Amino acid sequence: MTTTTFASASSADGLWTGLRAMDGAPLALAVEAGQVQWMGLPGTEPARFAQVVRHDGGGALVTPGLVDCHTHLVYGGHRAHEFALRLAGASYEEIARAGGGIVSTVRATREAGEDVLFASASARLSQLLAEGVCAVEVKSGYGLALEHERKQLRVARRLAQAHGVAVRTTFLGAHALPPEYAGRSGEYIDLVCREMLPALHAEGLVDAVDVFCERIAFSLEETERVFQAARALGLPIKLHAEQLSDMGGAQLAARYGALSCDHVEHLSQAGIDAMRAAGTVAVLLPGAYYTLRDTHLPPIAALRAAGVPMAVATDHNPGTSPALSLLLMANMACTLFGLTVPEALAGITAHAARALGLQDTHGTLAVGRPADFVLWNVREASELAYWFGQRPVRCVVRQGRIAEGAP
Ligand code: NIG
Ligand code: FE
Fold it and tell me: How high is the pLDDT of residue 251?
């Protein structure tokens, strides 16, 4: 497969024929000015599409562009040594309490210049994009000081421009307590709420706000203070909730109308009920569950019974999920968590878009939306969650351009 830079990618405008929809039915669609303008049975296109450029899909399956709704893509260094420590018996919490974990990536991220961060994040993003991702969330949270959080978020904005992909930025200043605030978490939360968030918001760098609510991170009360600051600025919230313990974060997040609660291994029924009532998406992160060799499964059956939409994301980060394949996460959501294949596929498309507030533009293939879709070399949609370690992508159309491969 050839990889084209975004700047030189050719327009996807024209009539796309020889496609099959996710149910296997023959499909054609027309792209005009970068938008899907018509979809229907081959041969039934409106007359105005008779003379336009034709792209023959050769029988490929077509899906909406994938959406990776939870990543920490921008950071310095790596944490392979912690992987080894965990294999030798140390837990994630023990490593964090001993000064490793998130804080060690904070050191490396603070040391790195913006261009260095951009180069490494850009290479990682390319991996996701080559697999059909058309929208991605990028969190800050490895700077934990205004200038370094700004650096991360600026890199996220630059990634969107350079790669021609929808990037939603999430401010995660309350990810961990920076060492210089040891014993003063209240003061650090003051800084997050009164200085960092307002300044970064004023610079147009923040699309949503997230907190790591956990016994090794921030309390429920501290989390709520950040939510209040976000609300005062009209910003949507998300939460790293109930990953290691049930903190009641999901109920709190739901009260603030959260877009999503993520991880949720220890989510209670009360949390599920609150999320259902608020329309909050549960974002499942099997890469972190797997890497930490967690054994406490998220309550999939109860989420399903309640009708809480479930998304699936990579959670790409150097500590708990060094994963750069969203299809592998779909596979693991089925194998480890027991999602059905249609649930996993909705989890990396429509429900993931909703977790980012992008449900009107991304995650579904429909007329009037940006032309973001993927042609796959598979016979059945179920194969997308079945194969792993390969990339059955034939062609990715992103923002109206043929961005990867060719029809
Ligand atoms: O989503 N849980 C907190 N945050 C990240 C891990 C960050 C890290 O360990 O560097 C997560 O798993
Ligand atoms: Fe995360």
Answer: 98
Residue 72 Cα to ligand 2 midpoint, Å, equals: 6
Sheet strands side by side (includes 133-139): 66-68, 133-139, 166-174, 208-211
Question: In the chain, which stretches have pLDDT less than 50?
Answer: 1-4
What's the pTM value of the predicted model, to 2 decimals? 0.97
The pLDDT score that the predictor gives to residue 163 is 97
Phi, psi of 280, deg, nearest 5? -85, 135
- pLDDT for position 270: 98
Left (φ > 0), alpha (ψ -120 to 50) or beta: where does 66 sit? beta
Q: What is the pLDDT of residue 8?
A: 72
pLDDT the model gives residue 9: 84
CA distance 321 to 242: 17
Q: Output the 3-class SS for 257-268.
A: CCCEEEECCCCC
Q: In this prediction, what percent of the chain has a pLDDT beyond 70?
A: 98
Number of the ligand 1 atom closest to the C-alpha atom of 79: 10
User: Average per-residue pLDDT in the chain?
Assistant: 96
Out of 102, 137, 264, 294, give the residue to mutate to test ligand 1, the one with the largest number of ligand atoms within 8 Å of its CB: 102
Rg from Cα positions in the chain:
21
